[in-house]
Specification:
By secondary structure, the protein is of the alpha/beta class. It has two domains: 11-228, inorganic pyrophosphatase (n-terminal core) (Alpha-Beta Complex); 236-355, Diaminopimelate Epimerase, Chain A, domain 1 (Roll), CATH 3.10.310.30. 37% of the residues lie in helices and 17% in strands. It has 13 helices and eleven strands. A hairpin with a 3-residue loop joins β10 and β11 (333-339). α4 runs parallel beside α5 (165-175), α6 packs antiparallel against α7 (205-215) and α6 (182-195) crosses α8 (221-229). 46% of the residues are buried. The model is unreliable at 1-24 (pLDDT under 50). The structure holds adenosine monophosphate and manganese (II) ion (2 copies). One manganese (II) ion (MN) binds at residues 60, 120, 145, 164-165, 195.
């Protein structure tokens, strides 16, 4: 069975989509949009469809994936599973996202789905053990916005100019004729606000045009912001105090542009009874240090293995730095996985900062 006719979007929302200033329709080839639509339309409504986002998922990974999954549900697809690799530890702020009932641990992923959709994943390495499922004959469509995207998958909808993967997801939903509703909008809005730092890093008016369309469905930006950004356990605040308190400033690094960095260990998390996701937002106060262009947060995932967050105010291309160390990301926000001690990690990063001044 194939998806039947679905209500299209209104002509006015179509017009708004086509008048986007730097929307995905310009960065992604028309033939790729068509191929992605054909891949979805080509799957039967009772076929297994799998949606996957990156390890240690953030708001964009989960929000764009679940928002799109809800859109597929509206189209009539009956067998949908959304998942991500690694420990099944959904950050608290995202546990109430609409569509969360579709999320399963990677152990319950379909082994050979007809269609696989991948969200916010720049490289197969970010898929952990789920990467092996891509070899099984499933049609693979990738929705992403990382400049460092490797182009994997059968169809790659990669728009480095998009503020979030949810911008790409919204465009594909629109092309599939899925009308926005409040549940889909909430997912896409969470994705958009997390990846734009609550609209602080917006470079195109099209982001606010999308936000306006999402809010028009009746969602509450204030309630979403409080839940997503402004709610944390007491222990997380105490942990933040310690981690920020040990930050070091290295004014000579990055050709004199300056580096500020700190780290958090699994022992820190244990001492305060916290889960790793509470560290994700800690890069923001570090990034705010006026004396440094580059901010680094080194987070211990398991003893001796670190997730490294890099941020720049524009003086260094941190995506190039992260890519050189096996990771990826964007010019001003990137990351990679490292081993050793925090000092080892910084020693690896320091010369690369000098090599990638802008
Ligand atoms: P984060 O510091 O985790 O918020 O990530 C910042 C940006 O870098 C995001 O766009 C991530 O997708 C990307 N990123 C983080 N870690 C990695 C990695 N190990 N490999 C590739 N991209 C990464
Ligand atoms: Mn992400
Ligand atoms: Mn993203």
């Amino acid at each position: 069975m194939r998806p039947g006719p679905t209500p299209g979007r209104t002509p006015s929302s179509r017009a708004a989509a086509s008048s986007r200033v730097a929307g995905p329709s310009e960065a992604v080839a028309a033939s790729d949009w068509e191929a992605a639509v054909a891949a979805v339309r080509g799957a039967g409504l009772d076929d297994e469809v799998q949606l996957i986002c990156h390890v240690n998922p953030d708001g964009d990974a989960l929000g764009s994936m679940l928002g799109f999954a809800l859109g597929l549900r509206r189209l009539g697809f009956t067998r949908l599973r959304a998942t991500f690799p690694g420990e099944f530890d959904v950050p608290e702020p995202y546990r109430a996202l609409p569509g969360i009932d579709l999320l399963v641990p990677e152990q319950q992923a379909y082994a050979s789905p007809a269609l696989t959709l991948i969200f916010d994943v720049a490289a197969e390495s970010r898929l952990g053990g789920l990467a092996s499922l891509l070899d099984g004959g499933s049609r693979v469509v990738v929705l992403d916005h990382h400049a460092s995207n490797t182009g994997f998958g059968d169809v790659a909808l990669v728009d480095p100019g998009a503020a979030a993967t949810s911008v790409v997801a919204d465009e594909l939903l629109s092309r599939l004729g899925v009308p926005l509703d409040a549940e889909i909008a909430e997912c896409l809005y969470v994705a958009l606000t997390t990846d734009t730092g609550s609209f602080k890093f917006v470079r195109s008016p099209s982001v606010h045009t999308l936000a306006a369309r999402l809010i028009a469905t009746g969602i509450s930006p204030a309630a979403i912001a409080r839940r997503t950004f402004d709610t944390r356990p007491f222990g997380a605040m105490k942990l933040a105090g310690e981690v920020l308190g040990r930050a070091l400033l290295d004014p000579a690094a990055a050709g004199g542009r300056g580096l500020v960095w700190t780290y958090a260990t699994t022992a820190d998390l244990e001492r305060h009874g916290q889960r790793p996701y509470v560290l994700d937002s800690l890069i923001d106060p570090v990034r705010g240090v006026a004396e440094a262009d580059v901010a680094v947060l080194v987070k211990e995932l398991v003893p001796g293995e670190w997730a490294v967050s890099l941020r720049s105010k524009g003086g260094v291309d941190v995506s190039a730095v992260a890519t050189a160390l096996g990771g990826g990301g964007h010019r001003l926000a990137a990351g990679f996985t490292a081993y050793g001690t925090p000092d080892d990690v910084i020693a690896e990063i320091r010369p690369l900062l000098d090599a990638h001044l802008t």
